[in-house]
Please model this.
Amino acid sequence: MSIRAPFAIATATLAFAGHLAAQQLTPQQQFAKEVYKELLEYNTVNIGGGTTIAANAMAKRFRDAGFAEQDVFVGGVQPNKHNLVVRYRGKGGANAPKPVLLLAHLDVVEALKADWSPDLDPFKFTERDGYFYARGSQDDKAMAAIFVANLIQFRKENYQPDRDIVLALTADEEGGCCNGVRWLIQNHRQMIDAAFAINEGGRGSLRDDKPFLNGIQAAEKTVSNFKVVAKNKGGHSSVPRPDNAIYDLAAGIARFSKFAFPVNFNPVTRVFFERTAAIETPEMARAMRALLQNPQDAAANAIVSRDVRYNSILRTNCVATQLTGGHASNALPQTAEVNINCRVAPGDAPADVRAAIIKALGDSTLEVSAAGNPSRAEPSSIGPEIMAPVEQVTRELFGGIPVIPEMSAGATDSRMLREIGIPSYGVSGLMTDPNDNRAHGKDERMRIKSFFDGQEFLLRLTKLLATTRTVP
Ligand SMILES: [Zn+2]
Model:
């Protein structure tokens, strides 16, 4: 990008921010912003914070808005890690269709003020230059605030859907003792039962500050870690021998670093590459289409895998992440160990992944730990029942940009819902610049226009999904 361009974009954003600030927010937008600010200023980190204060505050908002006591539930594993579940009742009746579940997590990743820009505080809501700043502004309090505001808006306008709409605001998605989705599944299964769920995990992409594509996440890889250990009898380092635990391990890792798992498409990643080819460079598009035709096409594979994002979607990926070895500086090492972190694609069994790692290391003396039994979930279907409503609202708000199904390399709580048979989709309509992803990072922020567009997107999508003629 040329020097001039960033300035051009900066002035455009500032001009827009000025316009947005000048432009009167609607009462619904003002309300969503208030809820967002309130949620962001609660310190809901794992250690030293907690979600209960936020869950109780949102519960109060629902009660004040007239939700019945039996439709507002707060509870969790321990006192500071509570979740909120709210039921917005539909037409009901004997043949009432199953509810739609709206899911967002209330916890955020730790953030130290010292790590942020001097004039920003991770737990103070700051509006500046067209952005809202705070920890959780992107991950995941925008969706939480929008769901709260939209459901209360439904109440105000006496909207009556065919399905019940269940909102779950949960604890410990980012880590910690008390994952709320797991707890609700184990202790209040009926309360969150649903035909399908809308969650974090998918968002829209901006290019030159304009919507470029809208993502819907329908699959996730799962995480498996393998320990590779080299052993040796050791001895005094003054009398070195050719056999050495660190050398053995290093040689194995060097061979392993050249290994890549075969391409493994699934229904979600097939559509991802089909639709992404349409908006990629001619060379990349040709390679994607050739690979879809023939996953063994080495030349096409090399071109597509050149892009690390696509490489992480094409296959299971494993990478060395931590290394330890030796017990004293004057002793020949008896043990050397490396951790191999794998993101396993649906369809690849951890045991097969372990076998492939052993083969790639090329040294049978290296011990590779067991695969463990990580929870695994098949992709959620991307049939018209979900794609048509998402495409309709995308068209209404963002014009003819493509809706692209995604498999994310990272994990969300959708995994647990898929495991119990609830199709789960990461979709938000929240447009972000893929080169400015600050989730979990410094000066996390949400573009103001994206927040309000996301509010409208999720309001319309929730209504469409809660209407049986749209979704049987
Ligand atoms: Zn998150």
